[in-house]
Amino acid sequence: MSNRYPLSPWIKFSCALGVLVVLTFAVPSQSAIFKWKDENGKTHFTDSLSKIPPQYREKGKLKTMDGKPAQSSKPAPTSNKNPVEDPGPKAKPVNHVIKAKSRQGGHYVVEVVLNGTVRADLVVDTGATMIILSDSVGKRLGIRKRNGLPKVGFNTAGGTIEAPLFVLDSLKVGSAEALNLEASINPYMGGMDGLLGMAFLGEFRMEMNQENSELILKPLGNPEDEYWDGKNEKWWKNKYKTYADNLRELQKAAKQVRSNYKVLKRVKKLIRHYRKLHNALEERANIAGLPMEYRYYP
Q1: Please, which pLDDT band fits residue 289 given cuts at 50, 70 and 90?
Q2: Do residues 173 and 200 lie in contact, with contact meaning Cβ atoms separated by under 8 Å?
Q3: pLDDT tens sequence across 182-233
Q4: Alpha helices by DSSP H, the chain
Q5: DSSP conformational letter for 144
Q6: Which architecture, in CATH terms, is 1-25+90-298?
Q7: Where in the chain is the domain with CATH 2.40.70.10?
Q8: Backbone angles phi, psi at 13, to 5 degrees
Q9: What pLDDT, on a 0 to 100 scale, did the predictor assign at position 119?
Q10: Are the C-beta atoms of residues 244 and 296 closer than 8 Å to each other?
Q11: How far is CA 84 from CA 27, 30, 115, in A?
């Protein structure tokens, strides 16, 4: 269904270089404390080999706190098991059938639960990039102090406005749930609670049964795929690579605009936002036992 609202968002980073977006690290735990030096000679400490950039894991470059060479300088084993805890059999994802309310103009509205507590009625909108919420829903979520959040641009009938970008911990529609989703608040929603965009819908193969007014969400991938926390290899790789690629661009931009305090401040806010997303993805991957070969880092 195409977006018939003039509110569909597009991410606009008003950084003079027109940079794209992103995110970064975190990983499993080990018993030893490792130390390594980066290209600038700065010494770093960590309890996890997987937190060390690959180029510094080579033999001879990595030592433990007592100065001895590390037993292993290779990345964490690419097993399907979490190094701390076996997550057990990987359950295959299931189809979700959600009752929707039909509205004039061919729109459908579904009830969602945000962050486990806040209920809202969102318009199913494949033309919206992320989750767009009204000001009142944002207040119910506790999004009040917004100066520390990065901004995104919205095209509206009255022109372009900027609104805060944040991360929803969870969004549930019926039996379907997605975690760590990009969302924004638009104060000009015309009485609607908001739009259910592709940040959520893109987690599934979506169908609309217009005869029965049902939203059908099917798992991505094929039946023979292996899944970790309900997601297949392709989903994990795409998430990781998108975040890592975008974060690299933002980090480059931060260096290039460091003399422009205003622009640098905006870029740093975006870096913090996408680091939060990447860290959450990494934590989820560790719990699910995702092999290291499917992960990407900036």
Answers
A1: very high
A2: yes
A3: 999 988 888 899 999 999 999 999 999 989 999 999 999 988 899 999 999 9
A4: 135-140, 198-201, 233-256, 261-288
A5: -
A6: Beta Barrel (2.40)
A7: 1-25+90-298
A8: -100, 110
A9: 97
A10: yes
A11: 11, 9, 27
Q: Please give the Cα distance from 25 to 50 (Å, whole number).
A: 9
- What single string gives the DSSP state of each residue in 211-272? TTTEEEEE-SS-TTS-EETTEEHHHHHHHHHHHHHHHHHHHHHHHHTTT-HHHHHHHHHHHH
Burial class (CB in 10 A: 0-12, 13-18, 19+), 289: buried
The number of residues in the chain equals: 298
pLDDT digit string, tens, across residues 91-109: 677 899 999 999 887 899 9
C-alpha–C-alpha distance, residues 179 and 168, integer Å: 7
Closest CA to 99 of 214, 204, 211: 214
Q: Helix 261-288 and helix 233-256: axis angle, to 10°? A: 160
Q: Which of 196, 197, 186 is nearest to 154 (CA)?
A: 186
pTM of the model: 0.69
290 pLDDT band (50/70/90 cuts)? very high
pLDDT category, 49, cuts 50, 70, 90? low
CB 159 within 8 A of CB 168: no
Residues 6+ positions from 104 with CB-CB distance below 8 Å: none
Closest to 217 measured CA to CA, from 228, 237, 201, 231: 201
Q: Is the pLDDT of residue 120 over 80?
A: yes
Task: List C-alpha distances in Å: 109 to 87, 117, 197.
Answer: 36, 19, 12
